Amino acid sequence: MTKMRIGYIGLGTMGAPMAMNILKAGFPLTVYNRTASKAANLIAAGAQWAETPAEVASRTEIVFTNLSDTPDVLQILFGENGVIDGSHPGMILVDNSTIKPSASREIYQRFHEVGVSALDAPVSGGDIGAKNGTLAIMVGGEAEALEKAMPVFEAIGKKITHVGDAGAGQVAKAANQIMVAAQMVAEAELMLFAQKSGVDVARVIEAIKGGAAQCWTLDVKPQRLLAGNRNPGFKSSLQAKDLNIVMDTARDYQAVLPGTALNSQLFNGMVALGEGDLDNSAVIHMLELLNDTELKTNP
Ligand code: NAP
Fold this sequence. Notes:
The chain is α/β, with parallel strands linked by helices.
């Protein structure tokens, strides 16, 4: 059976390895990225380059996008030579970016009018999950479109959930970010708490990792912080962006989220301090400032 022709736009930390997994699964792949040099590895591995997002769409059956924020996605879809200009009835658009649920609903509607089914399909699992093809993918949109695109989803993700109609995938991702941010802040607090109490932080982590506090954050982040590594992973500026999406959406629906409101202030504070390019676990710096102490490291 001939494989569907796939397009991938946005070859950053997440997009590049996801596109590579699609290519490795044997799908003919056309790529575009604002900074063309980031496509070099993919082209060396057999992908085709397109000059514009419209050209990607005109050559392919399923177009994936993976861009930073809502305005960037709108630009690539509806700006000059945008995806919609090269789209054709029956095409499927899959947006892997994390953006506002309300924007995903608007995208769905505008593409629906030209015969294209749009799926919002944000992901969780970080750069490691993107490389290993083990992402959790939360999908909003029509079930038939997801079913058709499923073989491609299976090349990039391990757990693929159809959450509901357009925008539902983004709501699930926003919910995910409520939890992730809370874990980052709690992890930072517990490490400084243990240190200030005069107890070995690494031993505390070891002791609690298998109990009720067990989570991915505790498995992965403390050892990086204790080694003095605050590099991303997942940039704090993106964490701040995601929490702003959560708070905007919460306001739209009168949801009251006091914990997330505080956490979003801590991450926005990091961005204000010029620390937006650090990992989200580096939010510990905000707690270090409040505690007038620094986490002791063993690089
Ligand atoms: P990234 O490394 O900063 O890459 C962003 C990509 O978007 C780049 O390809 C960039 O192009 C492109 N882009 C941004 N603004 C653009 C614009 N106005 N026009 C054209 N292209 C534009 O970010 P990332 O970590 O891959 O994140 C991508 C999305 O995945 C975000 O929505 C993020 O929240 C989400 N996400 C990230 C992670 C993670 O662990 N990193 C995990 C889950 C979800 P250039 O190369 O030209 O800059």
